[in-house]
Every structure is written in structure tokens, then in C-alpha cells.
Amino acid sequence: MNDPVPVPFPIPNDPSIILWLFFWFAIAVTVAYAFALLYHWIRYAHMYPLVWVMLPIYLIGVVILIGAMVSSIAAV
Amino acid sequence: MTLKNMREGEKIVLVVRKHWFVLFRNVLALVILFVLPFLFLPLFFGFLAQGQTPTDFPAGVGFFFASFWTLIIWNLLFARWTDYYYDIWIVTSQRVIDIEQKGFFNRDVATLFNLNYVQDVTTVLTGIFGNLLGFGKLQVQTAASRDEFVMYDIADPVRIEHEIREAQRKYYPPPGQGHPPLPSE
User: Fold this and answer.
1) Whether B78 contacts B128, CB under 8 Å
2) Does B111 fall in a domain?
């Protein structure tokens, strides 16, 4: 009989606590990057027209990935 | 492209970017960074289990960390792209302008040299990829106090050299072969 092996470090009973910590870390990183990217893209858009293509792609990706994180925490 | 602080009568001749391989190299590094946890974490947990059934994690945990890691890499990817896309050299009818984006909030805009100071332009293709894909560095010797300027990893440096020489010939012809426009310094 193969029993599950206990992990050699303590894990809280509610794993979503850890996930929320990672979630807020990812949000902080994303806010910093999004601010820096959007600031540069919009400020110099007159010189770099391709930013208008990348901007929605970036934002849609961010929304989808944050949504994926929230929905997977809800599934835990 | 429009440029602020253009001089009177100045026209943009050419916009030069680094070769796409420079961006590809950075993206490839990110792709490797992206797949590493997906390769090594299963090995790690398999090692912990030591041949027995690996510990079950609640449903969604794996998906959460996959999304988490993808979001981090997603941010880095666009930062790399911005760094690449914002680094340009602009050859105008009077000068060559270097715009360099060094990370975020560090943007360096400088006139590298005036076209009428150019004495010699040389191109160097280095390395296997540089020769295969046709990118390398372009060195400009000028008569100014800072006498040499180098543009690294630019695409098709031979063509850029030709364009710079053409612009110099057109806008600053040798004495007796035309009337060059006077740059407003």
C-alpha cells in the first residue's frame, strides 16, 4: 500500500493562506511593472507606434492571469 | 516617427534598431526561465516521494503557481521588449541621435555626432550569429573632441554605413560640389 509521503516542512491547514501571499506579491510586482510600462508607452507613443498594439495584448494577458490565480485559489 | 527638439530644416533620414536577434536572445532566456519550474518541480516532488506516491496537493494549487509564474514572466517579457524597442539611433540630415532606454525611468537621449564631422565609418560583423544574420557594430570616426562612436548589435551595419555616407554626401557635400544647409547649432 503506497501511502502519501508527508512533506518535510509544515504546511498550514488552509493552503489558500500561502496562495494569497503569493497572489499579493504577484499583484505588487505587476502594479509596478504595469505603471512603468504604461508610463513609458503612453509618454513616448508619438515615437513608437507599436506600443498601441502591445498595450492591449499586455493588459489582456495580465487580466487573464490574475483571473486564473483568483479562480484557482477559489478552487482550493 | 516624430521627434521633439528637431533643429531647423532637420529631416529624419533613417531610424536604426538593434537586430531582432538581440530581442530573440532575451526572449529565449525568459522562455528557459519560464519552463524551468515546470521541469524541475515534478522531479523535486518525485524525489521527495522516493518511489512512493507523491503527496497530493489540493486541486488548483498547481494551476495557481503556473499562473503566478506566467504572470511574472509576462511582465519581464514586455519589459524586455520595451528595452529593445526603445533603443534606437536616428540618422537625420544633420546628425545621429542615440536614444537609449536603460531599464525603467532611465532614458538617455544624446546627439552622437554631427554628420559634417564624420571622417570614417567602419562596420564589423562579429561571431557566428553576427555573420550569419548580418548584424554587428558600426564605428564612426569623427573630427570632434570625442573622436569615436560605436553602435552595437545593429541590423545590417553595411547598409547603415552606406546610408550615413549618402546623407553626409547629400547634406554636407565636399567643397565646390554644392551648398550644404547650415545646421542651427
Assistant:
1) no
2) yes
Q: What are phi and psi of B141, to 5 degrees?
A: -95, 125
> What nine digits make up the cell of B38?
515546470
CA angle B39, B43, B48 (to 5 degrees): 150
Which of B17, B50, B82 is the mutation pick for testing A, counting most A CBs within 10 A? B82
Does A46 reach chain B within 8 Å, measured CB to CB? yes
- The CATH number of the domain holding residue B159 is 2.30.29.30
Identify the H or E element spanning B52.
none
- In this structure, what C-alpha cell is assigned to residue B45? 516532488
Give the containing element (helix H, strand E) for B15: strand B12-17
Give the range of the structural domain holding residue B101, as residue numbers without chain letter: 13-175
Q: Nine-digit cell at B84? A: 529593445
| Beta-carbon contacts below 8 Å between A and B | 103
- B25-50 pLDDT, tens per residue? 999 999 999 999 988 887 777 777 77
ipTM value: 0.82
Count up the domains in chain B and report the number. 1
- Helix count (H) and strand count (E) of chain B? 4, 7
For the record, the C-alpha cell of A34 comes out as 504595469
Domain boundaries, chain A: 38-76
pLDDT over 90 for what percent of chain B? 23
Closest CA to B97 of B113, B118, B120: B113
Instruction: Mark yes or no for CB contact A5/B79 under 8 Å.
Output: no
The model carries a pTM of 0.80
Query: Is B4 within a domain?
Result: no
Distance CA B70, CA B67 (A): 5
